[in-house]
Amino acid sequence: MNCQREIPLDLLSEEEAWMFFKEHSGIGDNSPSELLKVASNVALECKGLPIAIEAVGSSLKKKPIEVWKAALYSLKHSKPMDVEDGVRDAFSCIELSYNHLRSKRDELMFLMCSMFPEDHEIFVEDLIRYGVGLGICGKVESVDMARNQLRASINKLLDSCLLMHSAKNQVKMHDMVRDTALWIASRSANKKILVNLDKDLNTLVENGDINDSFAVSSWNKKTNR
Asked: Mean per-residue pLDDT for 60-69?
């Protein structure tokens, strides 16, 4: 952003993290004691990372205690092992929000958003058109119905903090969320996504770089297309 002064943001303290977590999860001091205890432990597992706290808190909002307990167990025992230590906890937390998406359609929309370059402002209408073209909704009665379902998926991702509002009729994906989405895709059978910003597409084909990819997104740096 060409800032004149860079100010490092440290991890949140336990107290700050708990306050931030309560804000996004809907947990209050008057919540049942058992839920408060589990929620506090879930917040601790987010390791003070704001993006993780926001994503996990939003994904568990208004969920029953059993879901909270399952989430806590998942955060404690399902750590990604193929990424650097500094981002491992954040990836786990964001993946938990992905796992709580309600439908396959929501999951596919999430993965599709990761195919855009970092910091790309995505037009909602483009997402809907791509979603219809790729058949994310499966068999539906009409194009209007497909559009409604895809818009509902986009809203779900926004509510879960897996997407962010940008300019009017546009959304963005946080860099760490995008990295997590690509990491999730790389671990899933037949879902690896390659986002190409540098090489000519013919070069990728010749080198065999796309052989194991389910989807390839190739962008021109000058035109972002």
From this structure: 92
